[in-house]
Write a structure and sequence with these properties.
The structure is a single chain. The chain is mainly alpha-helical. It is built from 7 helices and 3 strands. It has helices spanning 29-32, 56-60, 67-75, 82-89, 93-105, 116-119, 122-133; strands at 51-54, 80-81, 109-112. It is globular. The termini are far apart. The relative contact order is 0.19.
């Protein structure tokens, strides 16, 4: 951070580690979003399968972001879904949705919402579920596949 602090769970270069970041935050979700629950002006939530990727401007401005925003942009060096980000960073799904929309509006993230036909494809949903199960829990244990 600009004041010399390293964001929680950040690596040496300021990026979050490739696996889950430390213990879950004790900060209430509504504090992270200033009480907002709808990530967009339309009030529609961003779909969980939406892919987000950091822009060059977002990566250049990492030191100016809050901890959670920093972690989101740093994790998005490679495209990731909203669901993956929430699980990996151990943030509430709606917090990630709201913050991702804020970061998109500020030009720090690019958001790619999949076409509606793709989201109803069972194979895509199965891959999302499998990807979420591949993320270890707080003890480093993988979920059983059902």
């Amino acid at each position: 951070m600009a004041d010399g602090r390293t964001p929680r769970g950040a690596g040496e270069d300021g990026s979050p580690p490739s696996d889950a970041v430390g213990p879950a935050s004790a900060v209430r979700p509504f504090l992270l979003t200033a009480g907002r629950v709808a990530p967009t002006a339309s009030g529609r939530p961003i779909p969980v399968e939406t892919q987000v990727v950091a822009t060059p401007a977002g990566l250049d401005g990492l030191d100016l972001l809050s901890f959670e925003q920093h972690d989101i942009v740093a994790a998005c060096r490679r495209p990731q879904s909203i669901a993956e980000l929430a699980a990996r960073l151990r943030l509430h799904l709606n917090v990630v949705r709201v913050l991702a929309e804020d970061l998109r509006a500020a030009g720090q993230l690019t958001v790619h919402v999949p076409h509606a036909d793709v989201t109803h494809d069972a194979s895509v949903l199965r891959r999302v579920i499998d990807g979420l199960r591949a993320i270890p829990d707080s003890r480093g244990v993988l979920r059983d596949t059902d």
